[in-house]
Amino acid sequence: MERNLQRTGLLNLLALLLAAAGAFGLARAAGSASALDASAFLLIGFLAALVSWFQMRLEAREQLENLEVDELNKNRASAALFAAADAEIRPARRAREQFERVAVPVFTVALFLIQGLAAVALWNGWLKPGPAKPDAATLLMTLFALLALALFVLGKYAAGVARIENQRLLRPGAGYLLLNAVVCFIVAGTAAGAHLGVPKLDLWVSRCFCAVLALAALETLATLVLEIYRPRVKGHVARLLYESRLIGLVGQPEGIVRTFAHALDYQFGFKVSETGFFRFIAERALQLFVAQLVAFVLFTTFVIIEPGEEGLLERFGRPVDGRAVLEAGVHFKMPWPVDKVQRFRTRSLQTITIGGEGREETGHHDEGKVLLWTKAHNDEEFNFLVSTGGSGAATGPGEQSVPVNLITVGIPVQFEVTNVLHWARGHADSAKLLEQLAFREATKLLVGLDYDQLLAAGRLTAAEELRRRIQQRVEALGLGVAVVFVGMNDIHPPVALAAAYEDVIGAYQEKQAKILVAEGERAERVPLAGAEAHKKVSEAQSYKLARISSVAATAGQFTNQLAAFRASPEVYVRRQYLQTLTAAVAPVRKLVLGTSNASEVINLNLEDKIRTDLLDVTLPGTEKKAEKH
C-alpha cells in the first residue's frame, strides 16, 4: 500500500510538472497573461508535491526500519545488545527528523519567497507572455479545458485516498491538483471571452490570480511565524508547513461543510451533523447550489428601470442595436454577464459644486448656524481672482498693486441629462468634464467682475451669465445635458484675510459714521446760527426804533416844556424843583413828626440795616399812603 501511495505522489508531481510546462508554452504561444499565471500555480504545486513525495519516501523507509527493528527485538538475546544503541540502528528515523526540522522550514521560506515574487512579477508584467493572439483563443480554450479535466480527476483521486487512508502527505499535492484544475478551467473561460470579443477579461483574471498568490504568500508567512510559537507535544503529528489551508478550501470546498458540521456539533453539544435534515442538506448541497445559481441567473434576465432613470443595455460591453436606451419600466435581457445595464438619472436635477466641497454639497448648512467670514463655510474652499475695479494703489516708490483681489464662492451647477447616449458614451467621464468646464468658465468670468459689485447686487447677473457660458461649452462638446441653474453662494473674502478685510470695512464704516455725525451737527448748528443772527438783527432794529422814538419824544417834550415855561416861568421852575426833589428822595427813608410842641426825646438810629426784617415788608394797601406821606 505504501508503494501505491508513493506512486500516487509521484504521479501527482509529474502531472503538475508536465501541466506547468504545457501551460507555459500555451501562454507564450497565445499571449495570455492568465495562462502564464496558471503555469506559476502549477509550478508551485509541483514544488510542494515534490517535497511531500520526498518526505513520503523518508517515512516509508522509517516504517521498513521499524519492522526490521521489531524483528530483531523478538530475539531476547539480541534485544539487550541493541537496546543501548537504538539511535545508531535507526538512521531512517534520524534522516526523517532532520528533514522535517531543517529542510521543511527552509523549503517553506523558499516557497513564501517564490509566491511573493511571482505575485509581484506577474502583477507588474515582468514576465510578459508575448503579444496577444486572438486566433489562438479557441486552441487555448480547448487545451486548458482538457488539462482542467485531467487535473480534476487526478486531484479527486488523490484527495479521496488521502482522506480514506489518512495520508497527510498526499494532501498538499491533491490540493494543488484541484486548485490548478479550477485555475485551468477559469483560463479556458477567459479564452472563451477573448473569442467572444472581451479581451480585457484576460487581464482582469490575471489580476485576480496575482491576488490569490499574494494571499497564499501571506498565509505561508503567518504559518512560519505561528510555527515558532507552536507548543511541541510528544507523539502529536504537526500539520505540514507547506500545506496551504486556503488552497485546500479552494480545491476541496467540501472541507468547509465538514468544518461547519464539526462547529455545529461543538456548539449544540450533540451530533447535529448526523441529523436527517443536515444529511439532506449535505447530500444535496451541490444541487442546492446549482439551483441558487440558476435562480440568480434567471433574476439577471430582467431589469427594472426606476422613474426618472434611463438605462443603457450592453452585450459584452457593446450597445445592443435597437435597444440601446431603456426607458422606465421592466425590461428583459440576456443573463449576466452577457448583458449588462448601466443606469443614469435623466429626469431629475443633478448638482455639482465648484469652489467649495463638503457641507455645501448637501444643499443646506447646519440649521441655526451663523456663517461668519472668519470661518470656512465648507470643508474645502477655493479662492477665485476678481477685479477691484480700479487701476491699483501705490505700495511704494515706483510700485503699484495689481488691481485684483481674492474671493471665495460656492457655485452650485444644476443640470439635467437630455441625451443619455452622449452623456454616457461621448466622453470617458462626463460628470468630471462638466465640473472642469464649469470651473474654467467661472474662473474666466469672475476675473472680469468688480469685487464690490459682486458682493452686493451683481451676483444674480453674474450667475446667469455663467450659466449661459457653461451651456454654450456643453453644447459645443456634445455632453447631452441642459444647465438649468447656476448659483453664487457663500460669497466672502478668504478666511485668512477676512479679519483684515473686516478691519478695513470697519474703518470705512467709522468714517461714514463720523461724516454723518458731522453733517447732523452742521444741520443743527447752521439753522441755530441763522436764528441767532436774525434775533440779534431784530433786537438791534428794535433798539434803533426805541432810541429814535425816545429821542423824538424827548424833543417833543422839550417843545411842550418850553411853552409851559413861557406861560409861567416861576411855576414851571417850582414844579420842576419839586419833581426833582421827589425823584431824588424817593428811595431814601424819611421820618414824619406829627407834633412840634412836645418835649419827648426821640432817639434816631441812623445806621443802615444789614438785613431786612419782617417789619420792613410793605403791607398790601399801604403803598399809596407811604407815597402821600
Textual characterization of the structure:
- The chain has 629 residues and is α+β, with helices and mostly antiparallel strands.
- It has 4 domains: 2-81 and 89-232, no CATH class; 300-345; 350-363 and 374-390 and 402-493, Tetrahydropterin Synthase, Chain A (2-Layer Sandwich), CATH 3.30.479; 499-577.
- Helix content is 61%, strand content 10%.
- The protein contains 18 helices and 13 strands.
- The strands form 4 sheets. Strands 7, 10, 11, 12 and 13 form a 5-stranded antiparallel sheet that branches. Strands 2, 3, 4 and 6 form a 4-stranded antiparallel sheet that branches.
- Strand 2 (309-315) and strand 3 (318-319) form a beta hairpin.
- The radius of gyration is 58 Å and the shape is elongated.
- It starts with a helix and ends with a helix.
- The relative contact order is 0.05.
